[in-house]
Amino acid sequence: MCSLAKAQKAMLEDLVCGRVTIPGNHLEVAFVRSSGPGGQHVNKVSSKVELRCDFESIDDFPFGAKLRLRAIARNRLDADGKILITSQKTRDQRMNLEDARDKLSEMVLAALVVPIQRRATKPTKSSKRRRVADKRNAGAKKADRKPGSWDD
To answer: 83 has which bridge partners?
Structure first.
């Protein structure tokens, strides 16, 4: 029960991701029974963590980053539009909560990176000439492989 109290306390802590801080009141944590091996103990302890983040209502989160985060987490959004992150890596509730918080932090940091816009460029005249010359050489090489007429 002690680890549950610590986990609930950790739930209320703010999550700092680069220059954005996710307030603890935008995070919800639920502990459910984990699947997999563990014998009788697995039926008694709820060590799996479900972390939900309501990122849409965070004020200091940039609009573009919200759009990128929605695209990154498109398969993890629930019906309310919150990101659902689960972790059942270990048998320890606290470690699973830290793992879920780390996963969320990585997603937010990835969303904060602004992608560089590609500028369309034209190939140079010399590169066009080289390309055509290479094609001509390749064609000549293939033409040399053809059997010629043996008129003697």
So the answer is: 53, 77
**Is-contact 46 33, C-beta < 8 A?**
yes
Q: Which domain holds residue 38?
A: 2-112
Q: How far apart are CA 114 and CA 40, in angstroms?
A: 48
Work out the percent of the chain whose per-residue pLDDT is above 90.
Answer: 40
Contact 78, 70 (CB under 8 A): no
Is pTM beyond 0.90? Reply is no
Q: Which stretches does DSSP call E strand in the chain?
A: 15-17, 20-22, 27-32, 48-53, 83-87
86 in any annotated domain = yes
3-class state of residue 128 by DSSP: helix
Joined tokens for residue 138: 């390749």
pLDDT digits (tens, 9 = 90+) for 111-144: 999 999 999 999 999 999 999 999 999 999 999 8
End-to-end CA distance of the chain: 100
